[in-house]
Amino acid sequence: MRYGAWLLLLMIVFQACNDIEQPQEDIMMGKDIHSFSEPGKAVAKHLSLQLQVDFDTKQLSGIATWDIDTAPDAEEIIFDTKGLIIDSVFLNDDTTAVPFSLGKEDPVLGQALRVPLKAGAKRVRIVYRTSPGAAALQWLEAHQTAGGRHPFLFSQSQCILARSWVPCQDSPGIRFTYDAEVKVPQGMLALMSAENPQQKSADGVYRFRMRQPIPSYLLAIAAGDLVFKPISARAGVYAEPETIEAAVHEFEDLEEMIQAAEQLYGDYVWERYDLLVLPPSFPFGGMENPRLTFATPTIIAGDKSLTSLVAHELAHSWSGNLVTNRTWNDFWLNEGFTVYFERRIMEAMYGRDYAEMLAELGYQDLRQTIARMGENNKDTRLKLDLQRRDPDEAVTDIAYEKGYFFLRLVEETIGRDKFDAFVKTYFQRFAFRSMDTESFVEYFQKEVLDKNPGAAKAIRMQEWIYGTGLPDNCPKVNAVRFRRVEQALQDWLNGTPADSLPTASWSSHEWLHFVRHLPAGLSVEQMKALDEAFGFTQSNNAEIQAEWYAQAALHGYSDAYPAMEAFLLKVGRRKFLVPIYRALLQTEEGKALAYDIYAKARKNYHYVSVSTLDEMLQWNEKVHKTP
Ligand code: BES
Ligand code: ZN
Fold first, then answer.
1. What is the DSSP string of 475-511?
2. Which atom of ligand 1 is nearest to the CA of 331?
3. Who's near 414: CB < 8 A, 6+ residues apart?
4. Which residues of 419-428 are buried (b: 16+ CB within 10 A; e: fewer)?
5. Cα separations in angstroms, 103 against 40, 114, 198
6. What's the rounded Cα separation, in Å, for the pair 322 and 432?
7. I need a surface site. Which of 7, 126, 162, 325 has the fewest CB within 10 A?
8. Which of 596, 15, 541 lies closest to 298, judged by CA?
């Protein structure tokens, strides 16, 4: 039997004994340049993980046992690793180890772990340890947490950092189920992107199971002094005891949000949806780990004004976690759809005018990003080419906002009803599968362009997906509430005192729009007047703080520097750090301050923020020494 036919048979047999359909044809279609694995020859289908968490040595150690499917002539199976210390490897239940090999180290991809197979090999057992500097993991000292009593650990696996804590086939086109047993110090709760405990155990041992197949970048773990509070029967929040009440209050509307999402694009299939509020050094706003979104505490503003982030991570339960970008070159399929879905959820919950503010802020971001990158920059294409590059470079406003505006253009061209039907079917049809740009284009051609006369001409799909810059048919946004903000700003510039501007009903989005549009030439006195009237420097809203501190740096408004420094020392969210440091770098005085603060703050940041900022600041440990 030919190899393809053999695999087809294997697929059928495999599907029959699995809860969820897992076609394998999609992973055979092309190579993922960011993984050493060769799933067409041997693919890992289920992971049994046994881990011990050691806060003293900052290491995970244990055994990863993979159930594998192999082609008849497969001589080896290849896993991705990064910084892992591989102790020994066994096949099936054998007690004699096999001679594995670790390939040459690539700075981005890590090392290939090659395990020779024998006939009848169904399982590979890998005994290993992580290195203390594992890129995915951040180990926090007790003083870096809200409670200050226990240390904390969390992972961030996207894009290709899962391989730094689990030997795996680290490609988004490959899915597997998993179970795990994790041991943490007594008094701590451990959580994963799986069925989770809601209470601490007496012995610090926890068991997990993820029955739906997921790609490796959705593997996640966290441990710390955590408690759980429910919000509804299927949703709740985990946080440190100090943060839990504020978090539950902030996310009160969570169940309503899940229902709004289901109304739009179909049932939520992951059973539970919980949030984990992390310490402030978490490098992202949120991460859509299945069943358990990881979130920054900086979205707890006290007034539910930053919960669109939760809508975003929730939306990934469809776009991303169900239908997954096949490679990181197709990242826009994850994020563009998710931003679109996020704004539809926000519109359903808070109305069109509200959602339009989010869209307009997104448009501003997009415009700025394209201006900074250059109209002709290849990275302004939706379909990326990340050959020999770190896929982290895919994380720009292009995937998010150009992706959003493309989908919005389709919606406006064919009408919302037809578009919603298309999206819903797309999620159903490709659930638990991966999608690359080329397959999407083909499907889109068939389901949208061929069925709607005139749509192809109006949309110009090829230009959006494979062209640079922003096409001139980009939809127009008009957030009416922002026009009032601009009027208020104008009035103030014309002499109306700040405290008599009509700002009483402004949400954080209006404030953001206001601060973003402060003219470049403002004097320090004018900055001070605004600050006295509105208390920006002392704001509790991290979005406003970040925007204001960047303005303070640009305008040399030094009254804000102590608060800015405190913010930079505590918060590790890259989206906030980058604009503030960038603004500081604009002036000589600011530059000195930036290096001074970064030297102290760097150790508080996660690897992903550090790598971005090291490059931005051209940081060199030998020249700029950490105190
Ligand atoms: N999945 C992303 C975060 C991510 C992307 C991590 C790529 C690593 C590599 C997550 O869903 C996300 O987009 N988070 C955003 C929030 C959102 C509201 C735009 C963030 O963290 O800012
Ligand atoms: Zn996202």
1. PP---HHHHHHHHHHHHHHTT--GGGSS-TT--HHHH
2. 7
3. 422, 448, 452, 455
4. beebbeebbe
5. 20, 8, 41
6. 5
7. 7
8. 541
User: Is residue 607 among the annotated active site residues?
Assistant: no
Summarised one tens digit per residue, pLDDT across range 27-69 is: 455 799 999 999 999 999 999 999 999 999 999 999 999 999 9
pLDDT tens digits, 228-267: 999 999 999 999 999 999 999 999 999 999 999 999 999 9
Domains of the chain: 3-301 (2.60.40.1730), 323-466 (1.10.390.10), 487-617 (1.25.40.320)
Q: Is 212 helix (H, G, I), strand (E, B) or coil?
A: strand
Query: What is the rounded CA–CA span in Å between residue 301 and residue 286?
Result: 15
Residue 340 CA, ligand 2 centroid: distance in Å:
11
Tell how far the Cα of 74 is from the centroid of ligand 1, in angstroms. Answer: 37
Q: 562's torsion region: left (phi>0), alpha (psi -120 to 50) or beta? A: alpha
245 given a catalytic annotation = no
| pLDDT tens-place string over residues 189-219 | 999 999 999 999 999 999 999 999 999 999 9
If you average pLDDT over residues 551-579, what whole number do you get?
A: 98
**Which pair of structure tokens corresponds to residue 260?**
């709004």
Measured CA to CA, the distance from residue 326 to residue 501 in angstroms comes to 50
Q: Give yes or no for residue 362 CB within 6 A of ligand 1.
A: no
Closest CA to ligand 1's atom 3: 287
> Coil, strand, or helix at residue 22?
coil
